[in-house]
Design a protein that fits this description.
7 helices, mainly alpha
Length: 180
């Protein structure tokens, strides 16, 4: 993305740490945790890679279509999984947002760090911003009443940590969409 370097590095760290925790959740004994954790790890690491400040590394032109293809595949997987309901619809929206940002960055002049200029916020960017802002607010409210698990609960099975990770990725998505 194309923001200042310090907030960019904070965003990279937040997303990478979230992705790493999601990898730990893949070892959970709870099947639903394992199922959701893989897609969330991919999202966390993908967002971390996209958030590296342009002053440090500007991805080659072929990287953006690769991002779009990877997250397009993730969107198809989420769409297939959504037929069972649950959190997969959010994964679908997140993957579609990543595809969208990849395509915008691929089309931007200067290797993906151009921006919208004076044209205003495109409708899809605005819709995604509204969705993720609402998601962040709702996730924050849901996080408050959660109590910690018992003494035998492992790191991968703690619902409050999974919700905190989803909240942090939602915040990161809002930040990335704002800099798009």
């Amino acid at each position: 993305m194309h923001g200042p370097a310090s907030p960019g590095w904070l965003l990279v760290a937040l997303c990478a740490i979230t992705g790493a925790y999601c990898l730990l959740r893949m070892r959970s004994h709870v099947e639903e945790q394992r199922r959701a954790a893989g897609g969330e790890a991919l999202m966390g690491f993908g967002m971390a890679a996209m958030a590296v400040p342009a002053a440090v590394f500007t991805p080659p032109g072929w990287a953006w279509p690769v991002y779009a293809a990877v997250f397009g595949a993730a969107a198809l997987h989420a769409l297939w999984s959504a037929r069972a309901g649950g959190h997969h619809l959010h994964h679908l929206v997140g993957a579609v947002a990543m595809v969208y940002m990849s395509l915008v960055m691929a089309a931007a002049p200067g290797g993906g760090h151009g921006g919208h200029g004076d044209a205003g916020v495109p409708p899809l960017t605005g819709a995604l911003l509204a969705y993720f802002t609402g998601y962040v607010l709702l996730s924050g409210v849901r996080l408050v009443p959660v109590t910690a698990g018992g003494p035998g609960v492992g790191w991968g099975d703690r619902p409050e940590l999974a919700r905190a990770c989803r909240l942090s990725m939602g915040i990161a998505m809002v930040a990335m969409l704002l800099t798009l």
